[in-house]
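Researcher: Going back to the complex we discussed earlier. I've cleaned up the inputs and rechecked each line, so this should be the final set. Can you rerun the prediction on the complete assembly and write out the structure?
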Amino acid sequence: MIRGDGWKPYCIWEHSATVRDLYLRRCRREAEEMTSHRQAAELLASRIKPGETLLDAGCGSGYFYHALSSRGIPAEYWGVDAAPSLIEIGRAVLPVYGLPSERLLPWRIEDLDGLVDHTVCLNVLSNIDNYHRPLERLLRMTRRSLIVRESLKQGAEYHYVRDRFLDPDVRLNVHVNHYDVEDVCAFIRSYGFTVRQVIDERTGGKPEDVIGYPHYWTFLVADRLPEGTSRS
Ligand SMILES: C[S@@+](CC[C@H](N)C(=O)[O-])C[C@H]1O[C@@H](n2cnc3c(N)ncnc32)[C@H](O)[C@@H]1O
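Model: Rerun complete. Updated structure for the full complex:
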């Protein structure tokens, strides 16, 4: 027998009560704001004009909405995440804070299409198999600016390792990938953007241990070039 429902059983994000509890507390504003979310909001603040759309790709439960609304950043927030149970948390809680539940969508980045003004993708691509397909979708969809925070360094490394922080008896592997920073920048430029690296304020550019593996958190801030601009 062949089945087509393998996504959820293999999705590590569907197998951690600890993560669900943390994301619930973030939605309820009971947990401290993430430094990376503060930094991303500050990078976005000057870019967003009232009513422009912002896509949070791999949004968890959508709590980046608070980083915008608490600073009066006037974006129309949309969150997309491949883990339906995490989206459900945001849909249950964030309407209390003014986000309509239909702005949170249980979809994969790879399957997206359409247009948005701005995109953030924070702490997502380093833990999936590769960045090309999802990042291409986001670059094609984004009219103005894109901000990513991922594990980037000189020289790529790809690992697929046991995640020992999941629920008891769950034995799943997770990708812990560090992409070559110049590779990713060149990829972004090739879709018509300028891009610059920004030091991650949480880690000061030093490796940080996450689930037992170093991550090299780096922000990339990309702005779309006007139509017809030469990239050379
Ligand atoms: C480490 S969490 C980061 C959540 C949030 N961006 C943050 O900064 O707290 C990674 C998220 O990416 C989501 N994710 C993983 N692969 C995805 C995909 N292909 N499309 C959409 N979301 C994905 C996971 O479900 C998870 O919620």
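Model: Worth noting: The two ends are 54 Å apart (CA to CA).
Researcher: Good, that matches what I expected from the previous run.
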